[in-house]
Structure to design on (609 residues):
């Protein structure tokens, strides 16, 4: 496209606008996290008069942040690993086989995206409690319960995206491997999966972010020992006497892993969406 | 595959050993009908456990008077037929009136957030679509709100929107002098705008991401040719960009609509369990009925109504636009 002068001016103004609206809350969080408590409780100052890094140290004892952190890491990693594996298998079947019920399955999985979470939250809680009573597997208040819940949240998008990705890869690649005597599963994991890495990485980022940020189900399905960051910080934030500087420090600490991971891998996410969604 | 299965493959009739571009997998032929089912089985089991089965239980609960008296022993809750639904759908009653109010608020909120996200997303995507210095950095910056955990984004806004020590009032009142009094953002009618702003800030980058991926797949030669023919920028946008973005837009708008209409996190983290009337979004309204007022039967009936509404809108949307699509394309 020819870049005329008008467009360059529009671009500078436009980018300035988007930069400002994006940075306004981010700047507020960062600057408030290094102010003393008295300063965040009085009128907001753009430039802090005093700077302290104490909030970053104090928050760990104000709330059990380390505990929440560990819980969130284990639950999110577990949900991501399993959902990616399960999505790869399902997407492979949908992309490479024509079987009865294929359309119904895809439609059912996709339509679960539409369910209001609030509709199945209480039933799920009841089912988890009863499963525990019936077969002795603890699901309520356990990592397993939340891992299972979160992995299904990521599945519809993951399967949909991977089907699009797999469809864009020629079948001859696996067929060549299978002629050499590899099984279908072998061809999937040794041929198709390696060349689909951008799509798989995109799906994994999505699954991790979904689990890391979820509030509603975590607030009902966890107990004190398995409380995640989402619930822990939310519960602290709505108290009447909040140490805002410490809360902002915590917000930054818990965001760094996902934001850094997302930004490092966003190239794959864009490629994955382009291959899986846009063309699909 | 397909040699031993009783059903014919959908696309074409294949015979044993026949060559075709599609699905002739030597090893899979051993048990051709079972293998794909084994592959989808784990996904199916998880979906059944977490979504399908609980949803059916939820539909069942919607016909019960499952209030706080029966929480410990919910099998004793009396069957009340469609009473929960009738209560919810009667706009002149207290329950139905509040639900209708909440529905209208959610509708207005959804229109503003989805429309705003699309408008901001397409504008930003057009700005960074062509190559320039620092483009990578802007793209990454704009994606940060979407990359942040939802609750962090909402907590940040709830701090900014504090009446006495929030950055918003400092900006509007002390710096820009747009307002004389420091308004309350999280109570009263302003609460609606607070939840719209918060959601919009978080969701427009998703539209940006999808639309940018869409724009990148449009060949630059199309624009070159149109430019040479003297088409204005606006005309190129209308005749090239919009039609070619149609597939992305169809999916994007539907997904944004469903997410926004079901939005729970923003009001829940901004306002806690007692949202101001002006920001009483449906999901939180149902949550309060179920888990605060302990009327699970009513909450379940409201959820089913919400699901039916989303289902009907989605089906109409897909039908109408597919028909329209054949006419345009």
């Amino acid at each position: 496209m020819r870049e005329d002068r008008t467009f360059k001016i529009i671009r500078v103004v436009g980018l300035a606008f988007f930069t400002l609206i994006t940075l306004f809350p981010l700047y507020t969080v960062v600057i408030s996290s290094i102010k003393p408590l008295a300063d965040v409780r009085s009128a907001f100052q753009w430039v802090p008069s005093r700077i302290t890094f104490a909030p970053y140290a104090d928050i760990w004892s104000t709330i059990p942040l380390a505990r929440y952190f560990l819980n969130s890491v284990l639950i999110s990693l577990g949900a991501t690993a399993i959902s990616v594996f399960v999505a790869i298998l399902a997407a492979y079947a949908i992309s490479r086989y024509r079987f009865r019920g294929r359309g119904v399955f895809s439609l059912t999985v996709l339509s679960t995206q539409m369910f209001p979470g609030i509709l199945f939250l209480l039933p799920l809680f009841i089912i988890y409690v009863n499963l525990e009573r019936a077969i002795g597997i603890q699901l309520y208040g356990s990592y397993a319960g939340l891992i299972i819940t979160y992995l299904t949240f990521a599945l519809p998008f993951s399967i949909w995206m991977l089907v699009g990705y797999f469809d864009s890869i020629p079948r001859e690649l696996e067929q060549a491997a299978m002629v050499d005597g590899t099984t279908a599963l072998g061809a999937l994991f040794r041929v198709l999966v390696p060349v689909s890495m951008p799509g798989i990485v995109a799906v994994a980022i999505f699954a991790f972010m979904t689990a890391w940020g979820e509030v509603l189900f975590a607030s009902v399905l966890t107990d004190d020992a398995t409380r995640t960051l989402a619930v822990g910080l939310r519960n602290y934030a709505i108290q009447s006497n909040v140490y805002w500087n410490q809360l902002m420090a915590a917000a930054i600490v818990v965001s760094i892993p996902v934001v850094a991971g997302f930004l490092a891998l966003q190239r794959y996410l864009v490629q994955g969406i382009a291959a899986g969604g846009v063309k699909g | 595959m397909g040699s031993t299965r009783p059903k014919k493959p959908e696309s074409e009739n294949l015979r044993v050993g026949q060559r075709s571009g599609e699905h002739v997998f030597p090893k899979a032929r051993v048990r051709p009908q079972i293998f794909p089912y084994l592959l989808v089985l784990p996904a199916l089991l998880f979906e059944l456990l977490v979504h399908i089965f609980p949803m059916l239980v939820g539909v069942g609960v919607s016909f019960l008077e499952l209030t706080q008296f029966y929480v410990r022993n919910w099998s004793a809750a009396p069957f009340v037929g469609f009473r929960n639904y009738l209560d919810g759908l009667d706009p002149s009653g207290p329950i139905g009136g509040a639900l209708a109010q909440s529905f209208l608020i959610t509708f207005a909120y959804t229109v503003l957030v989805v429309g705003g996200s699309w408008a901001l997303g397409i504008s930003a995507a057009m700005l960074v679509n062509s190559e320039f210095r620092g483009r990578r950095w802007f793209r990454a910056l704009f994606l940060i709100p979407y990359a942040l955990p939802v609750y962090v984004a909402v907590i940040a806004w709830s701090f900014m929107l504090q009446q006495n020590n929030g950055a918003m009032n400092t900006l509007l009142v002390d710096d820009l002098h747009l307002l004389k009094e420091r308004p309350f953002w999280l109570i009263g009618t302003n609460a609606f705008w607070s939840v719209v702003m918060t959601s919009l800030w978080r969701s427009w980058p998703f539209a940006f991401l999808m639309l940018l991926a869409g724009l990148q797949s449009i060949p630059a030669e199309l624009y070159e040719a149109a430019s040479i023919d003297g088409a204005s920028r606006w005309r190129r946008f209308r005749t090239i960009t919009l039609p070619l973005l149609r597939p992305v837009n169809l999916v994007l708008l539907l997904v944004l609509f469903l997410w926004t209409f079901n939005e729970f996190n923003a009001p829940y983290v901004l306002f806690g369990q007692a949202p101001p009337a002006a920001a009483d979004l449906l999901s939180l309204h149902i949550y309060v009925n179920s888990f605060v007022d302990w009327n699970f039967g009513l909450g379940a009936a409201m959820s089913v109504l919400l699901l039916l509404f989303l289902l009907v809108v989605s089906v109409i949307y897909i039908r109408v636009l597919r028909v329209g699509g054949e006419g345009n394309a």
